[in-house]
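Researcher: Please predict.
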Amino acid sequence: MKFDRRLLLNFDLFFLLVVVTICAIGLLNMYSAGFNVLSGRSGPLCLRQSLWFVTGIVFMAVIFGIDYRSFSRYAYIFYGVSLALLVIVFIVGDVTRGTQRWLALGWFSFQPSELMKLAAIVALARYFAVNEKEGAYGLRELVVPFLMVFVPFVLIMKQPDLGTALILLIIFVSMALFVGVKGKTVMIVATTGILLLPFSWYFLKDYQRERLLAFFDPEGDPLGSGYHILQSIIAVGSGGFFGKGFLKGTQSQLRFLPEHQTDFIFSVFAEEWGFLGSVVVMILYLTLIVWGLKIARQSRDYLGTLIAFGVTMLLFWEVVINVGMVVGFFPVVGIPLPFMSYGGSSMVVMMMGVGLLMSVSTRRFILQP
């Protein structure tokens, strides 16, 4: 297959530079999160995350090199493979701290639920593009795309992984509202959801219930369920305007802050770089989100618009929920901060999403086949 030189001429370098900048900040922050004040050295997390970043760049380049329209032709196969991996997790998946989310693949573990986020976006984009309507969608017309999300939602909830499961539902709602839903349908779904919400309490695990209760009253159990959020708020608040300085965050360095490499990685950053540094990172994320919406708006076809919008919404909601979580605005549900939280699966999948966005962005200059 001959490489089209126009892909390089119209390459979206600015978007990639912003992504790489956030990743670089994340690696620097990961070095600090793994730093040991006694030995004066950082642990292996930064090196591992660097390897995942390089791996993510490779996957991003591969996805970018494939025309998103060609990629979408296999959307349902991609979705089916991701769904099969979620099932396989329950058969041979590793059990860690009462959860079964990872598949051991040689020297590394992979989390299929992360891949399902991207698979669901591409599958939904394919469905809505093929079944495009001039008017808004009704309740019956949303049954199939809803089931495409609901099936993996149930499987992920059983792992259990409340955060990822909620992200899937939020992506579906975001894309459904984007393509247009009848007002009557919105009212029916919203009313049904509100009525069923109290019953969802009985489907949660004990620790998930404790986290929700801690959200409303973290000081009710400061050494138990409320410990995570209280320590996170202390870390963010103690950073002040300019921060305590690199490698000088007491909450993370003295290990008061739990899960500081993953869910609460932003707390580590906020403590060391303060409000000013946090604003800079938020501006970088905002730039990515605005640029992603711009790519969606400028796409030459509906499929490209839907893919770009879906990936941008994934980025948007993960940033909003994670940052809101660490400052006490949302319950702790275990959603990573894109490009910064430790985790190979999240890093590689998000870089694949970047590849899709850049594929849509670059190919708007190329005539449709």
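Model: The first helix runs from residue 6 to 9.
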